[in-house]
Amino acid sequence: MALKALDIYKLLPKKNCKECGDPTCLTFAMKLAGGKTDVDLCPYLDDQAKSILGATTRPPIRLVKIGVGERSFRVGEDTVLYRHEKTFYHSPGIIFRVSDTQTTEEIAAVTKRVRDEKFTRVGTDLRFSGIAIENRSGIAETFAQAVATVEQQQAHLPPVLISKDPVALSAALVHCGSYRPLLHAATRENFKEMCTLSRKHGCPLVIRDATLDGIVGLVKDCTAEGVQDLLFDPAPENLGAFISRSTLIRQHAITRSVPELGYPVYLDASWSGQQDACLALGIVKYASVIVTDPLTPGPAKASLTLRQNIYTDPQKPIQMSPGLYRVGNPGKDSPVLMTVNFSLTFFTLQGYLEASRVPCFMLIVDTEGLSVLTAVAAGKLNETLVRDSLAKFGVGDEVIHRNLIIPGYASPLSGRIEDATGWKVLVGPRDAAEIGDFLHEEWKKKP
Amino acid sequence: MVSEIQFGWSGTIGNVMLGATKAEGGTRRVSYCIGGGTSLPFIAKDHSSPAPLIAFEVCDNPHYWSPIVRTFCGDLVNDLAGWVKTADMSYKADLIRLHLNSTRQRDFTNITAIGKTVETVLSASSLPLIIEGSNEPGIDSDVFQRCGEAGQGERLLLGTAEASRYRSIAAAALAYNHSLIAQSPIDVNLAKQLSILLKEIGIRNDQIVIDPYTGALGYGFEYSYSAMERIRFAALKGDTDLAMPIICSPTDTLSIREVREADPVIQEEMAVNWEFYTGIAAAAAGAEIICVRHPKTIGMLREAFASMKARVDPTGER
To answer: What CATH architecture applies to the domain A323-445?
Structure first.
C-alpha cells in the first residue's frame, strides 16, 4: 500500500535541513508520496524508516540509466500495463550484439553502423541504442580486446558486457568502466563478484534467472550488496514465456504487490531463432533493453517504427493541423483535394498521392480529428466548413481553376458545397488507394 | 512465492465459427472456432483460445493489387483459381480472403460474375473463406446477396459492415447463415455502437468479428493497437457488445512509403517485415485473424504464433 504524505512525514526527521533539496520535510514527504523523489536523498533517516519508505515511495519501476553522454538512455519508471491508460514513457534500447570471436574489422563495422545509422520519420531521428559485446571465446584477454576495439571507434555508445565470468568482465571494464556499461549477468552462482564489479564501476547490473522467485531472491541479495540499478533477464524459453513473465513482472511492479519486481526487463531477442518476433514482442510487452544480432534493413526499419508508434503518447489527439498541404511541386492548374484532419486519413491519402506522381494540393479541413465517414454523419463536415477553409487558406490564390475533389464518402455534400463555394465539385473515390487512377483518368477528363 | 496475476475478470471472448465441414453442412476440409479467451492474449494458463489464424488475401482484379505481390506471385495473380490453390497448398494459409475489387470499377454491373468468382474460389481451395464485397451502396445489396448465396452452407465471413452501411451485408449473413466483419474507425465506443446496431437487426454475437481498422505500421498503427487492447479489455471486464474476436487487416501496408520506395534489392524484405511486425504486435494486442498479402509473411507468422502459444508457467516454475 502506498503511504500518504502525512504518514511519510511522521517518519522523517522534521529538521527542515534542506539537504535533500526541498525546502521542508513536508514538501519532501509530498514528493515521496507521488514517487517523484528518492528516499536516499535524506541523510538523516534511520535504516528502519528507510526500509519502510523505500518500498512504498519510490517509483514502482526503478529508473536506470545506461551509458553516459549524448547516447545514454534511461529505462524504467513506467506505470501502466496498457499504453492507453497513460502512456509508455521510456522506450526500450535496441542494442546490436557482437561477439569477441569476430574479427576486429567486423566488430568495428557494427560499432560504426550503430554510431552513424539513423532513419528519420515524422521529424524524429530513429537510431539503435548501443552495442553489446559477448564473451563467447571464454577468454578474458580476447573479451577485453573486443571491448577495446568498440571503444576505439569513438562511438560513445552505451555498452552491454555479456559474460558469466567476473574476471573477463573485470578485464573489459578496464576499457569502458567509466561509461556505465550494463553488466550481464548476475546469477545465483556469481552475484557476489558481479555486485563487487557493479559497485566499483557504478554499473547497472542484469539479474538472470528463469523463475520469478529466483529473481526476487537475487534482487534481495544484490540490493543487500549495495547494488540498486538492476534489470531482469527472465531467460524465457519461448515467446509465450516472455509475454507471460514480462507481463507478470510489470503487473506485480506497478501494483507494488511484489515490490522486488520493480526493475526494468532485459531481453535477449536472438536466443530464440525468432529474433524478429522476439524484438516486436519486446517492444510491445515491456522490455527495456533488447539485445539483437545486427538487423538487415527490413527488420531495422520495422522495429524502429514499431518502437516509435508504441511509445507515442496515446492521449495526443489523432489530428493534423488544418491547412493547405503540397504534394510534390503543384502549380496553378494542379488538382485540389479536400479531406478531413484525421491524421490516418491524411497520411494514407498523402502516401497514395505521392505514389501517383501528380503534384497537387491537399486542403485539410478541421473535423476535430474525425474520419470522413464519421464527420459527414455527425455533420462536422459540411459546406460551411469547406467554404470557410477555402477562404482561410487562400486556396483561390494558389490555383486558377475552381475544381475541388472531395472524398467519395462526402458525395452527399457535393451539391451543397458547389452552392456554398461556387467551386465545381468532383467526387473522388471512397478508397484512397484508387486516387492515383482517379487523377490520371477523371481529372484529365474534367471540362 | 511470486503468484500469478489475478485480474478478476469475468468476461470471455465469444466464439465465432469460420467455415463448415461436410459434417457441419458445408464442403470445407476444416472449420475454425475462434474466440474463447478469458485473459490477456497469450498469457492465460488454460490456453482457452487457439493461435491466431493467418488469412492470405487475393483479389479478382489484380490491376489494383500491390506490384510487390504481383512480382512475387507472377502470372498466378491472373489465374484466381490457381492463386487460391497455391495460397492453400504452397503458401499454407489458414484462410483465404477474397477481395472482390472488380466491383470497385466505376459503373460496375456484372453481378452474375461475382457469384461465379466465389464458386471458383470455393472449389479451388477447401479452406474457409472470407469475402470482401463491394464498397458502393448502389450495388451492395446485389453483391452480398450473390456472395451469400454462392457460399450457402460454407459459413463465410463477409466484409465489411460499417455504421453507415451494414444492412445489405447483414441481410446476406442472416439469409444464408454467414458471419460478418464489423469495422469501426479505431474507436472502442464506435465498435460497440456498431455491434448494437447489428444486434438490433438480428445478427447474433457469434456472427460478428470486430475490425477496429488497422492503420499501417508507422501510419497510425499505434491507434489501432490500442483500440484492439481496449476492445479486449472491455470484453474481459464483461461488455458482451465487444466480446467478439478481432481481425487485423492492415490493407495499406504494402503501399506505404517505406515499402513502396524501398530499394528494389530489399523491397521484398521490407514488405514482408512490415507485414510481420504489424501482425505480431496486433496478435499481442488481441487480434485473432491476421490478414497478409505477401506469401512469405505466412510462414514467419505461423512459427512465431506457435512459440507464443507454447505452454508455460508464467512464474517460471517447471
So the answer is: 3-Layer(aba) Sandwich (3.40)
